[in-house]
Structures are given as C-alpha cells and as structure tokens.
Amino acid sequence: MTPRIRRVTRALTAHIDSQLLIALLLLMAVGLITIFSGSNQSAARVSSQLANIVVALGVLYVFAHIPPHYLMRIALPLYVLGVLLLVCVALFGDIVNGARRWLYIGVTRIQPSELMKIAVPLMLAWYFDRYEATLKLKNYIVAVALLLVPIGLIVRQPDLGTALLITAAGGYVLFLAGLSWRIIGGLAIAGAACMPFVWGMMHDYQRQRILTLIDPTQDPLGAGYHTIQSTIAVGSGGIIGKGWLQGTQTHLDFIPERTTDFIFAVYSEEWGLLGNMVLLFLFLLVIARGVVITANAATLFTRLFGGAITLTFFTYAFVNMGMVSGILPVVGVPLPLVSYGGTSLVTICLGLGILMSIETHKKLVQS
Amino acid sequence: MSELTINPGVELRNSRLEIYHFRLRLAIASGFVLCMFFLLFVRFFYLQVVQHDYYSTLAEANRISIVPIVPNRGIIVDRNGVLLANNYSAYTLEITPHKVEDIDALIDDLATVIEITPKDRRRFRKLIEESKSFESLPIRTRLSDEEIARFAANRYRFPGVEINARLFRQYPQAALFSHVVGHIGRINPREIEQLAADGLDANYRGTDYIGKVGLEQSYETHLHGTTGVEEVEVDAAGRAVRTLSRSAPVSGNNLALNLDAKLQEVVYRAFGDNRGALVAIDPATGGVLAFVSKPGFDPNLFVDGIDPKNWKELNESIDRPMVNRALAGTYPPGSTFKPFMALAALTYGKRRPEQVISDPGGYNFGGHFFRDDKVGGHGMVDMYKSIVVSCDTYYYMLANDLGIDNISMFMKQFGFGSRTGIDITGESAGILPSQEWKMKRFRQKWYAGETISVGIGQGYNTYTPLQLAQAMATIANDGVMFRPHIVNYVENIVTRNRSVVEPQPLRTVDVKPEHLQVVKDALIGVNKEGTGARAFAGAPYTSAGKTGTAQVIAIKQGEKYVESRVAEKHRDHALFIAYAPADKPKIAVAVLVENAGFGARAAAPIARAVFDYYLLGKQPIPLKPGKDDPNDTQD
Questions:
Q1: In this predicted structure, what is the pLDDT of residue B564?
Q2: Which of A55, B39, B137, B299 has its CA 20 to 30 A from that of B464?
Q3: How far is B203 from chain A (nearest CA, A)?
C-alpha cells in the first residue's frame, strides 16, 4: 500500500469508529442469518434486508461526518415540525387498525411519531446545552413540558409503545442532565399514583396486553397467543438451540412476525442460551462503546444526546427481548439492527452515526 | 477573556464538577443497563435451562398432531349376500361453523352455486345445534361431478366451506329391514360419555357415527373396526406438513344374517296395507329367517340426522312406524295360547287326550258366563277337537282346573313372559301373569275368575310376536328351545375368518314326547280340517298351525263383537302361529296382523305365503280373502 492510498483510506475512514462498526456489522449479520431462517429461506427477504443495510450504512457514513453543532441548529426546527405534524395527525390522520398514526402527505403516508424518536432527545439536549450556564429548576420544568407535549399527542393516537420509548429517550436526557433525585422520586410516586387513572384512560386492547402479560394463559388463542408461542420457542431452544433452520416453532408458523418484531424468538429457538449470550454480548459491546464515547464527549449537548442515543438503543433491545421472552407486554418494537425493516435500521444507524460523529469531532471542538 | 482572568478557577472547577456529575449519572445508567441485561439472562436461563423440558414438550405438542384414520364400517348382508347395509364414498359439501360469521347468508350464497333444499337447511340447523362449532358439518351430500366443478370455480367466495370425500352408510333395502338392521346416526353427547366410560373413546376419535338401533347398534363393536393413527407434523394453521408415522385402521367386521331378503319381501307384500309383525325362525337352530314389523321407515333418513319435518311425520304417524312390533310390541296371544295350555294339561295330568267335555256354548264361573265363540257350543269336545276348532269352553274349564300358578310355571318354560335374548336390543318381556306377579304389580290378590280368560290367551297375559315364534319353534323342535339369532356369522374382512354364531340351546322343555305328539297332531289338524284349513288348502306339504284372535277392547257381558261396529283401531288383532313341514320342521312363524279381525282370515294366509316361498320357492299369488267361510270366523 502506497502512502497515498493509505492517506486516502485514512481520510475516508477518519470519522468511522471501528469498534462500533464491527459490533453493529456483527449484529446485522446475525439479523441476516435469522431473517433467512425466519422467512423460510427466502433469498428475496435477505437481499431486501441487504439493500436496507446498504442504505442504513450510507446514512451512518453521512451522519458520522456531520459535526454535532450542525445538529444543534436543526434541533428546534425539527422539534417544532414534529409537533406540528403530530397535531396534523390528530386532526386529519388516517386511521389504521383503530389507531390514528399515519399522515398522508401527497405522495406517501408517514408516521410522525417515528421522527419524534430522534427529535425529542435532540431538542432536550439542545435546550439543556443552551441554558447550561444558568440551569435552574425552571429549566427542568420547561424540559419536562417539552417532553410531555409530543408524548401526550402520541398517547392519544394511541400508540403506547412509541410513547413509552420517547418518554424513555427524553427521560434519559433529563436524568443525565442532572435532574435532582428528589424530583425523580417525586415523579416516580406521582406516576404510581396516576396508574389507576391511566388504566381508566387506556383502550381495551392496551389493557388486554397488560393483563395478558400477567397471565398469558387467560386468552391462549387471542391476545396471549403470541407471547405463549414465542416463550415456547425460547424455552424449547434449550442451551445450544435446535440448530439453524431447525426451529419447529419457527418453521411451522407458530411464531408471528418471524422476521420483524419476533425475530428474537426465531434466533433463540435455533441458537439457544449460548446464542442469546452472544447476542447480549454484542448489544453490550455497542452500548459500552456508546457509554465510553458519551463519557468523553466534549460538550453538554453531545454528552446528553450521545447518552440518550446509547440508552435508547439499549431500551429497544431490552424491550424487544423482554417482550419475546414474556416479561414485558407486546409492543411494536423491533430488535435493533437484527429485525427486518428499513425504517428501524436507518433510524438506528443514524443514531450510531451521530455517536461516531461525536467521538470523531470532539478533538476539533477541544482544539 | 477578561472574565476568565478574573475567576479562572471557579469556571474550571464547575466544568470538572459537571463532568464528574455527568459521569456519575452515566455510570448509574450503565449499572441499570447491566442489571436489565442480567435480568434478561436470568429469564433466558429460567426458560432454556430450568424449564426447558416443559417448553420442549409444548413445542412437540404444537408440532405433532395425532390424526385418527376412521376404519370402514363393516357391511351387512342377508343369507344370500344381498346387501342390507353398505358404504359408498361420496363428495360432501361441508361448512365449519366457527369459521363463518353469518351462516344463513353463506348458505344463501352457496345456494346460487349448488342446489340446497329447505330440507338440507333444516337438517344442517339441527346438526349445528347438536355439534361442536369446530367440526365441519355436511350441508349437502352426494355432490355430482358438475356440482363439484361449479363449487371449485367459486370456492374463493366461500371461506370455511370445503368439499370432502367421505364414506356414507346406505341401506339399499330401505324400510324392508328398518326394524332388523336398524341404522347409524351421529354420535351424541350421551354416547360420547358412554364410550368414555367403556374406555372406547380413543377408538372412536374421528368417528362421527355410531349404531343407534337394530343390528347396527347391537353389533357396534364388530362393525366399527379399529381406528388407525397417523402422526403428522402440522403447522400453526393445523395443515399437515408431513407424516411421521402411521398405523393403518382395521375395517369393521361384516355381518351375514340368517334372514332372507326375498322372504322378507314376500312377507312385506303379503301384509298389504296392514300393520303387524312376523317372525320366522328355523326351529333347529334359532336362526331368524324373517323379521318384519310393519310399517317400517326409511333408515337412510337417519344417517346424517333426520330433518325435523320427516321426524315429526314418523313420530306422529298414527301407524307408529318407529315401533318395532315384532320385538317390543306385546299382544294377547288369543287362541294361539291353547296348544300350550293343552300341553300343560297333559303334563300336569289334568286332561287325557281322549277325555271329552261337553261345550254348551260357554262356561259359568262364579256367576259370570264366559261365552264361547260359537253360539250353542261345539258339542262334545276332546283335546284334538279343542285345538282344531279352537273351542273356548274347553280351555275355560281347563284353566280353572290348572290354576294360574301351574299355567305360569309351565308357560315360563316356553319363554313366555321373558326376553328371548335375540341379538338386537329393545326387546319387551311381555307379561306372564301369576299370583305373585299380580301382587307385585297391583298389590292385589289373584281372583280365580281371572284365570279363566288366561286359558284362552286373554286377560293379563301379553307376549311379543317374537316370543310366540320362539314358543312355536320349540314345539316344532320337540321341546328343545334355541336362542333366536339374526346374525349367522361375523366375517373378519382381513383374514376372511368367519365366526359363526353357534345355535345356542336354551333349555329342553320338560314335556313327554307322547304328550307333545298329541298337540302336534292337533296343530296339523288345524291346517288340515280346522281353522287354518282354508289358508293351507292345496299345500303340497303338511303344516301345523294355530289361529288366534286377540281382543283389543273388552266386550260387555251379553254383547256380541261385530267387526263393522268397532273403530278400526279397536278391532281385534289377527294371529297365527305355524310350522312346516310337519314331520321335519324347517320354519316356524308367528304372524300378527293388527286390527285385522280373525286370525284365520288375515294372518294364516301370510304364513302360507311364507311357507310356500321358503319351502317351495314359490312367489305368492294374490290372495283372495274369503269373507263367508264360517271356518274363518272361528278360532
């Protein structure tokens, strides 16, 4: 390799974090292998996911090169746009499966709540960064309000799963920004006190999901069916699993959504406890790298936003695996980097790209 | 820049403190992450190691479905191989109710493609009420090829509807054998319980039908066969993916009967429009040669659940076609009882054959005059004449001399008042009265006057036509009584092994041969020169018989029974018992014709037709019932 080529390569990869990249590529590989099994060996599904991966890696590459302070500029407009779109959904949205989540914008339908998964933590991180020098209780109250407006709109759609994930993302920012323990405790108590009211406001199918979680056998052919079948898949996998392409629960159609939300059941049935440990390790690798990047980040904005991205990534992984193994209610959350689907892949890679950008742009900020 | 120089330390320290605080929070969050992942690990460990066996079993149970393979039901043939019950394979249109929201709308829609009659709809409604919703139920059977093609082209419009090939039971002889062969029907909840109690539920998995009455019921265990099992891997929708193992079903055994379909038809025709029953038995074996209860019904109606309209018709018909008269109908034997009374008299030494009594036209007992049928009486009557002319007075006196308990004791040996043990269920025992019986039944003592009418087969005693046939066969067979049986042999269709139902002698009646001969001679006399003579005129064989007429309503003291004055259903029943040939009996019959008047006129010609066919192979000639022969009105 000539020094020139080496220089060009270094220039091209200057903003890529190799440890993060290796971990996420491994997770994507696990995803491809499992999608092949879960789709009954459909090459079309696998190549379609490969295309998604290419697009997602492109997005990652682009965002790794965008310096964090550019993101700060779009934080407020993005947030305002998101909230406006949510209002539009509430007013003119299309109803699909009893929930008003989609907005028709001339050419296609979009789901503005997806946008808010990024916009809300971005907005909060920007807000805290802006008032960094004079942070007072008032600022926390405003931040909570900024969080509650979109969440309220999303809960009304209703889309409880997304609302919870955005709450988590915003909550992580508040927590990392130093929200006092007393307020956290107070909010926890207030939240617990609100539970009966929340229960009263819930839709039947939402209540059913929670009741089903407590006792799936109550409704084995209805709401509990998915949980029961995915739990059976995980449990019957045993320590070493049934082997790739050998999962009976998978290949006889007992598992629903085998390549998307329930892909972990397929993986777990075929690769067993050992496979699960490998997967947990890969997720931890991504999270650990994210934590390190966040800890060393240069500004409050990058610290808060990087932390929120890392912890949201964790939340997706945890909620999905918890749901499939029957300890969390069924919410529509894909397994990050593993599940089939372009939207989630692009969103996650976008976040990871930002993490790389935070890491690789910090020296510029410091210098 | 100037601010920095004023207070550089504070700014720097605050920033460090902030980073310290942030990293502390981040560490706490990381600890939370680790805790949560550890929680997941614990959950995985619990599911995949601790509970692994449990979930493996569940996964296997999901995967493997045990599919029963229903065996073919055995067929039933007569003694010459004529099919009485067989199976045919046909395509049915079936609906699985739980997959359909609005069944009526669906059926309306279906009716535009395939003809569905109101009868089909009624039957289907009833099926739905009686079955579980996840079963698929037939709405139409025997689809034509054209109908199948038409449905196939439109099937996308009808989710939850499918065409299945199934085996169906068919009774080609329809009403002719309805009371012998019986029929099958869909298994009802009570039968499911019974099967479970008998430990047979596993063998009936997948079976929809069970024998309900007749041979179909009593030989159910032979006819059903052994259900096979197929272990198949199924997907979540229950579709079979592949077969893992298979054990073939074993078809049910075939039944071959002693009955002769042609003879049965001869009987049916001989009855004309009359109601009644006929049982013909081979005296030497107890094999049942003909078994008719008229009217019958079409058993094919019952196979897939009878529709309510047909059921109502059958159930409410005044002719009561559902009643098995031969098996469960009990009738006073009338004068057919007399030969047995005579035998009792000889056996207990109460009469000698040549002993003569004078018949003044009746018998006075306790201030009550028991009238003889013949006004003015039969004059001097010995035992032979008493049977041949059917003299009532002779038997009034005899009954009084014997006493009810002797009569009861003796008649019991001939099977009167107890079930014969024939191989179909639902048999009535009839009533053989005795002092003890009356005490039990009515808590009253027996009056001597009641014995008198028992002597001529009236009074309390009532018997089934089957019992009369068996009793006559016992006389024909010199006192050796066999258990009547309809089935000749059971054939295993795999091994072609036939297990013949062995003739089963029940007992030998305690009578002396010379006494039996006296009665037999008199019975021959009946058909030669007595009340049966007209019916048997010109027969190339000798036969023995006895006519009888059973009163349906009591005739008041001093009144005379005039047929035309009495409502049809209150008219007397005609009876006739006979066997032939007299020297070496091959067939014994009991004939009962309801409300047809005198036995000689209505019942004896039917016996003649049966004998002519069975012994000579002769198809019966149209009968000319004579109205004015005085002998006919006498029995």
A1: 66
A2: B299
A3: 28
